[in-house]
């Protein structure tokens, strides 16, 4: 039997509060109704819900500021209220929800990534709606994803989703921030994400949201590489979720790319941080990009950073562009010794030669 298609719906603070300082429960009911309708149509639904900080602020009697620790405290207060609200609304439809609070550390480590994936799949298999947020109360800057747009892209990869809906307070990505640029127009479809497009996407225009369109574009770029179609749309719109699924909206659609089939390559896309970089020559760039070759020592020109065998490394072209990412077979000192050499010389140059490739093709994704 074919597995039902999974849709990840990311709800920003702007949608959940309607731009106010309280959760907009009336609108949350409406969003839940649409999620349950999608489930009736045979989809599995995952929510990435922001709003913990806003819900915490709503509860607090004495007002507090916006420092990191204050936001962490607010998230600790608000997350319980947020999940309780979702729980009671989905219960109206007889549907259970399951809370998963993640951080970047949960996807960086392959074992933890697989654990999170298994839990998510188990919830879906039992007809439960997973509701995911960052574990803000404990996440330090080093282990934080930092915004729920990027988190939702990682979740879409974990859930092997078909679509990711990024619902926010604008109709989509405009040619400029519509809050400040009255001439900005909506971009309906995006097939390439380049620097020109990134320049159009600014930060959040309010004190409620995190990241604005810039992080939505980052998320769209990650998700579409994993074969997920991404739509940015206005969360306040009538029937927004159902309309997104029926292609009936004003919104910005990001066309998906062909995803790597291999699970480990998908994990590489989900964003383990790289520990270093290898700068390669033009011949090696061509071999990687055009011929699907592995990276050999001969094509490596420089080593940046300190890393161990098995770490994730970025591959940089002579023009300074990151063109690939992969698991490296040697540590930084070993590559420094063998760079520029023929693979047959590795055994003489190193005491231990674990491999003839610096990064094997099967352990690499092109960017
Ligand atoms: N090019 C753009 N198109 C649309 N919105 C933009 C653009 N650049 C910046 N923004 C801002 O991004 C905001 C949405 O992001 P954000 O505030 O983080 O909301 P959310 O809580 O939904 O994540 C908009 O309110 C808008 O001010
Ligand atoms: N994790 C935070 C939200 C972080 C975030 O990315 O917010 P938003 O830009 O409103 O989606 C919270 O629950 O308040």
Automatic annotation (TrEMBL):
Domain PUA: 276-359
Domain of life according to the entry: Bacteria
SMART domains: PUA
Any single GO BP term: L-proline biosynthetic process
One Pfam family recorded for the sequence: PUA
Keyword vocabulary terms for this entry: Amino-acid biosynthesis, ATP-binding, Cytoplasm, Kinase, Nucleotide-binding, Proline biosynthesis, Transferase
The protein's Enzyme Commission number: 2.7.2.11
GO MF term list: ATP binding; glutamate 5-kinase activity; RNA binding
Pathway: Amino-acid biosynthesis; L-proline biosynthesis; L-glutamate 5-semialdehyde from L-glutamate: step 1/2
Positions contributing to substrate binding: 50, 136, 148
UniProt KW Amino-acid biosynthesis keyword: yes
Gene3D superfamilies in UniProt: Acetylglutamate kinase-like, PUA domain
Ligand binding (ATP): 10, 168-169, 210-216
Localisation per UniProt entry: Cytoplasm
Keyword match Nucleotide-binding: yes
HAMAP family in UniProt: ProB (MF_00456)
Function, as annotated: Catalyzes the transfer of a phosphate group to glutamate to form L-glutamate 5-phosphate.
Family statement drawn from the similarity comment of this UniProt entry: Belongs to the glutamate 5-kinase family.
Protein name per Swiss-Prot or TrEMBL: Glutamate 5-kinase
Top-level taxonomy: Bacteria, Pseudomonadati, Pseudomonadota, Gammaproteobacteria, Alteromonadales
């Amino acid at each position: 039997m074919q597995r039902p298609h999974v849709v990840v719906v990311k709800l920003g603070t702007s949608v959940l509060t309607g731009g106010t300082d309280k959760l907009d429960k009336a609108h949350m009911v409406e969003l839940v109704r649409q999620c349950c309708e999608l489930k009736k149509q045979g989809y599995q639904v995952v929510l990435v819900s922001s709003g913990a900080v806003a819900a915490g602020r709503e509860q607090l009697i004495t007002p507090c500021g916006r420092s990191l620790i204050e936001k962490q405290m607010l998230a600790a207060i608000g997350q319980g209220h947020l999940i309780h609200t979702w729980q009671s609304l989905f219960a109206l439809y007889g549907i259970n929800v399951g809370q998963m609070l993640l951080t970047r550390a949960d996807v960086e480590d392959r074992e933890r990534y697989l654990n999170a994936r298994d839990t998510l799949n188990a919830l879906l298999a039992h007809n439960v709606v997973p509701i995911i947020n960052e574990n803000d109360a404990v996440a330090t800057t080093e282990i934080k994803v930092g915004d729920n747009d990027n988190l939702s892209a990682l979740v879409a990869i974990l859930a092997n989703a078909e679509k990711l809906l990024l619902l926010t307070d604008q109709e989509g990505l405009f040619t400029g921030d519509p809050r400040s640029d009255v001439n900005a127009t909506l971009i309906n479809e995006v097939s390439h994400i380049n620097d020109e497009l990134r320049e159009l996407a600014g930060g959040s225009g309010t004190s409620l949201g995190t990241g604005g369109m810039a992080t939505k574009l980052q998320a769209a770029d990650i998700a579409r590489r994993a074969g997920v179609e991404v739509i940015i749309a206005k969360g306040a719109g009538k029937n927004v979720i159902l309309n997104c699924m029926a292609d009936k909206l004003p919104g910005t659609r990001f066309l998906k790319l062909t995803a790597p089939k291999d699970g480990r390559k998908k994990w590489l896309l989900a964003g383990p941080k790289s520990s270093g970089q290898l700068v390669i020559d033009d011949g090696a760039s061509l071999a990687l990009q055009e011929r699907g070759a592995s990276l050999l020592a001969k094509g490596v020109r420089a080593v940046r950073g300190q890393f161990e065998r098995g770490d994730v490394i970025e591959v940089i072209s002579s023009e300074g562009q990151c063109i690939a990412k992969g698991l490296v077979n040697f540590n930084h000192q070993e590559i420094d010794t063998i760079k520029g050499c023929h693979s047959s010389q590795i055994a003489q140059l190193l005491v231990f030669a674990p491999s003839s490739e610096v990064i094997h093709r099967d352990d690499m994704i092109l960017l």
